Amino acid sequence: MKSLDEKRLQKSRILIIGDLMLDKHLWGEVERISPEAPVPVVDVIRETMVPGGASNVANNVVGLGARAVVCGVIGRDSDGALLTSLLQEKGIETEGLVEDASRPTTVKTRVIAHNQHVVRIDKEKRSPLSGEVTTALWERIRAVRDHISGVIIEDYGKGVVTPGLIKDIISLFQGVPIAVDPKEAHYLMYKGATVMTPNHHEAGRMYGKRIETREDLLTVGDGIMNDLSLQALIITLGKDGMSLFLRNGEVFLIPTVAREEFDVTGAGDTVIAVLSTMLAAGFDFGQASAISNVAAGIVVEQPGVVPIGLGQLKERLKDERIIIEKVRG
Prior knowledge:
Layout (H helix, E strand, L loop, with lengths): L5 H6 L1 E6 L1 E14 L6 E14 H10 L3 E9 L2 H12 L3 E8 L5 E8 L2 E8 L7 H13 L6 E5 L8 H10 L5 E4 L13 E2 L3 H8 L6 H15 L3 E5 L5 E5 L4 E4 L12 H14 L4 H15 L10 H10 L5 E4 L1
Parallel strand pairs: 1-4, 1-8, 2-6, 4-5, 8-9, 9-10, 10-11
Antiparallel strand pairs: 2-3, 6-7, 11-12, 12-13, 13-14
Helix pairs in contact: 2-8, 6-7, 8-9, 9-10
């Protein structure tokens, strides 16, 4: 496998379109149960705020040394202003942001005690965008379309990514690798994208077959490839790593390299960010998938939403022996 060329990565400009979020983490300790109800009392020690959702994907992209542009919707509120500021501090291009006064900025607040999730609190509005806001978003996407080397559609089902928008994006960026982190409701709309990265639960629901065996995995993977005419499909398998399906019929399994699993939050964001950045830098699907698998193994070892860094990734790639099992082809 060729090495990670920082100059090549720096030339890549990845466009991330989708549901932007602000992730808040309340870190603390539990020493007692509430006298008011049988729930733990968390003594908060510190609070952190980081870009989440499609914003976390962009954060992972710039962590690799590439350029990232985000197109999405935020509320006209303090959380939206904070998220914009955090993105700009990290060097992420934010001219694609659209404010919508009718909906709040999506915020996920995670309470974490002793490195374990206690509860998550969501503030969001999941209804589709108005026609006016959708038009404004599309204008922002068209305005930043030049010099884009990869596109990521990050669909969390919060109302930003609609069937019409998906169709227009795939049409506008023909010839550019388009990666999709999917939502089941939009399954057939992704036809014409380059690669999709569902987890095994999402893939099973999309194709209507639960994945419990390798045979199930092959059936679902082949079905999705045929339905959507993808060039490649990655189905992530949790602690078992990931599978890679290629258009020529080849199928590979890539075991996880996580040394200790703390928290899978944000792992899918890391996978699609690293995959797209590596494809833009000239790696093939097999190489890009293997590198993204290593990156995911790093981030799940840390609690909370943590982006990958190029230095971390290069060090782990030195230490890890990349194992790819060819299942078929």
